Amino acid sequence: MLAGVELGGTKVVVLRAQGQKIIDHRTIPTTTPQATLGAAVDILRTWHHETPYAAMGIGSFGPLQLNRQARDFGVMLPTPKPGWAGADIYAKLTAPFDCPVVIDTDVNGAALAELRWGAGAQGPVPSDSLCYITIGTGVGGGFAFNGRTVHGALHPEIGHIQVRRAPGDDFAGSCPFHGDCIEGLVSGPALARRFGAPGHSIASDDPRWDFVASDIAHLVTTILMNTAAQRILIGGGVGTGRADLLDRIRATAVTLAGGYLPYISDATIASVVRTPMLGDQAGPLGTVALALDALNGIDRL
């Protein structure tokens, strides 16, 4: 029996699984750290009394301290999410349970699940390099290359990359750290501020969507140039909610690539830049992938 916790900025999915199969899950809102993590632990305890866990996987929004040698391992670093800076995610969720645990970002977990069981595993030639982007409350990005998630001094923080702005776009951005980084330009709250109304209420033919498509396409081409990822998956409420926006992103990305990347063209871009094959299960299954790694003694950190 495996346990998983996907901690997002808006909601938390708590689950248990046998192998790759999720057999039970609960969803709770993300409020304060004490209330949210406490509710998650209560659910985990109930299931644990029925069948003890062999391993646990945690995928959380960030930024997180993921260096196991650091004194603040598993702690939330400064974040735009009010009240969550300094929250001890790892200790709170794991203290009641005696089993191996792997913690990573929610998007790294989703990338790993897509690599193993979703978009990375499909087609005549499976992919061994994949980037998973979620655009919703914030903008996050995870990377799974050669079967492993990517870390360095920290984990990837593509949401705070600053991109070249389209001519005529004067939106100042909403990120409290950087203003017009990509999260400050295209996240759900940023779109609400940009449009003066929630993004889902804005007609698809509104010309301001061209600015949004340009911003995301610049992020896509930055990732392609830096990592040569074979797949870039765009998920989240904003990412998957508008097929017309994805088409604009693809067309703009081809233009921005300028013929420099031999694997990017009008004919290939739809196979490279796409929605997650696992859909809204990529995140939950990411925690299962991390739990399986914990069970097998694979420490990704």
UniProtKB/TrEMBL annotation:
Reactions the enzyme catalyzes: D-fructose + ATP = D-fructose 6-phosphate + ADP + H(+)
Xref: Gene3D superfamilies: 3.30.420.40
Name this protein carries in UniProt: fructokinase
Cofactor names: Mg(2+)
Transferase recorded as keyword: yes
Phylogenetic classification of the source organism: Bacteria, Pseudomonadati, Pseudomonadota, Alphaproteobacteria, Sphingomonadales
Keywords: Magnesium, Metal-binding, Transferase, Zinc
Matches recorded under InterPro entries: ATPase_NBD, Carb_Metab_Reg_Kinase/Isom, ROK, ROK_cs
Pfam families: ROK
Keyword hit for Cell division: no
EC number per UniProt: 2.7.1.4
Single GO MF descriptor: metal ion binding
